[in-house]
Design goal:
single chain, 167 residues, alpha+beta, Transferase(Phosphotransferase), domain 1, six-stranded antiparallel β-sheet
Length: 167
């Protein structure tokens, strides 16, 4: 990966890889003053998930989740030609890191359940895997934009919660 990434000609300096998901790689970047997340869409195969246009899906899901009030980073810019998205950076640790460090708090489960009270009536699930949630100032943010049609087998209580506990 180059040290400088662009979105519509504007340069962002790569700091580090934050993570890789089904749809792309997320990088912590800076313009010299502010930290951002730059997501680069990838087209690597995923045996358990099928995609249409990943960029369009991200943008559509962002709008959907924003309308129903899910706390998440703001979408700041899009470069369709390079299939890149620039997001607000929410500083904090992922729930995955916190769970593995033995620092799980009951209030975080309640915050996800509050999100579910918005999602389920809208017929939606999000990806409840704990790497997709960042804690900042006591508040959880869903840092992915993915959402899918609600299915009981994939809701928080039947799938996601199993990853929110130390085994």
């Amino acid at each position: 990966m180059p040290d400088v990434l662009t979105i519509k000609g504007r340069e962002y300096h790569l700091i580090r890889l934050l993570g890789k998901g089904k749809g792309g790689y997320s990088y912590l970047v800076t313009d010299g003053e502010t930290l951002f997340v730059l997501k680069q869409i990838h087209h690597e195969p995923c045996e358990y998930y099928s995609f249409g246009n990943k960029l369009e899906s991200e943008l559509r899901d962002y709008e959907t989740l924003q309308k129903i009030g899910i706390p998440m980073p703001k979408l700041l810019d899009v470069d369709p030609q390079q299939e890149r998205i620039l997001k607000e950076y929410i500083e904090g640790e992922t729930v995955s890191d916190l769970v593995h460090a033995g620092r799980m708090e009951h209030s975080w489960l309640e915050q996800v359940r509050d999100m579910c009270r918005l999602l389920y009536p809208a017929g939606l699930n999000i990806d409840y895997y704990p790497t997709n949630f960042v804690l900042n100032g006591g508040r959880l943010y869903y840092v992915d934009y993915e959402c899918n049609a609600y299915m009981r087998d994939w809701d928080f209580e039947h799938w996601g919660i199993q990853y929110w506990t130390v085994k």
